[in-house]
């Protein structure tokens, strides 16, 4: 068996891995609507958003870029459909709310760091590891990361909008490896989605780690991911990397 390459590059998912919404989507939408005299229940908007987002993602994957949409138009349509499903049929009344929400979700104050995010990134860099982002996000991500003080940690930020392919498409991972000039075996990816992050990276030959929160993991996923690749929190990453490097030395 050939010697396993040492890890040189860590690629990161962002949403629900490093950042999360400061407030639930339904509350954000309801607050902006209320400011314009429109009363809609936050719970109804939250449920409607989930449905609208899933439908839009199926009909127009990766922000509909290959179908002539822009990411901004894609998101504005999601907001319009969310309010429609929540019972608001007046698109003219919702249009300025949609514009405001798009701008607000571009601002760092709408987001918060997951516990341990900053310390983990600093710890990785202290070890001499190169860091990069591979995220199914749109063009707003660079400014969000800069505003939250995280952009400086990464060699580059590769979004699915910029790459043209969303995770788990292998091409976005291959593009990240090309930009970093690192072989798959010398890279690891960290994210919270089994399909997009863990499996997507693994399928191109990268190492991968699955971050999960307080909710119980799906039993099928738990059975298919080795215990040493499961991260209950970001603070577990550095010890997991130590174990990975240690197993490489034993080969």
From TrEMBL:
CDD domains according to UniProt: HAD_dREG-2_like (cd16415)
Cellular component aspect of the GO annotation: nucleus
Transmembrane segments: none
SUPFAM superfamilies in the record: HAD-like (SSF56784)
Similarity comment: family membership: Belongs to the HAD-like hydrolase superfamily.
PANTHER family in alphabetical order: HALOACID DEHALOGENASE-LIKE HYDROLASE DOMAIN-CONTAINING PROTEIN 3, PTHR46191
NCBIfam families, per database record: DREG-2 (TIGR02252), HAD-SF-IA-v1 (TIGR01549), HAD-SF-IA-v3 (TIGR01509)
Protein known as: Haloacid dehalogenase-like hydrolase domain-containing protein 3
Organism: Vulpes vulpes
GN (gene name): HDHD3
């Amino acid at each position: 068996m050939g010697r396993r390459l040492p890890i040189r590059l860590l690629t990161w998912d962002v949403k629900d891995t490093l950042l999360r919404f400061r407030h639930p989507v339904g509350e954000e939408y309801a607050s902006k609507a209320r400011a314009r005299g429109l009363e809609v229940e936050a719970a109804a908007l939250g449920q409607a958003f989930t449905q609208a987002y899933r439908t839009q993602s199926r009909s127009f994957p990766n922000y509909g870029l290959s179908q002539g949409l822009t990411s901004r138009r894609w998101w504005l349509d999601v907001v319009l459909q969310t309010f429609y499903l929540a019972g608001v049929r007046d698109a003219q009344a919702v249009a300025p709310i949609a514009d405001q929400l798009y701008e607000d979700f571009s601002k760092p104050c709408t987001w918060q760091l997951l516990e341990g995010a900053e310390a983990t990134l600093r710890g990785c860099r202290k070890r001499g590891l190169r860091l990069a982002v591979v995220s199914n996000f749109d063009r707003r991500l660079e400014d969000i990361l800069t505003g939250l003080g995280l952009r400086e940690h990464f060699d580059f930020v590769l979004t699915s909008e910029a790459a043209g392919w969303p995770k788990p498409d292998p091409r976005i991972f291959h593009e990240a490896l090309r930009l970093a000039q690192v072989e798959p075996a010398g890279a690891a990816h960290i994210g919270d989605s089994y399909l997009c992050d863990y499996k997507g990276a693994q399928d191109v030959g990268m190492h991968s780690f699955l971050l999960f929160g307080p909710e119980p993991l799906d039993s099928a996923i738990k059975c298919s991911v080795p215990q040493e690749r499961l991260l209950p929190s970001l603070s577990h990453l550095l010890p997991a990397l130590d174990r990975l490097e240690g197993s490489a030395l034993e080969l």
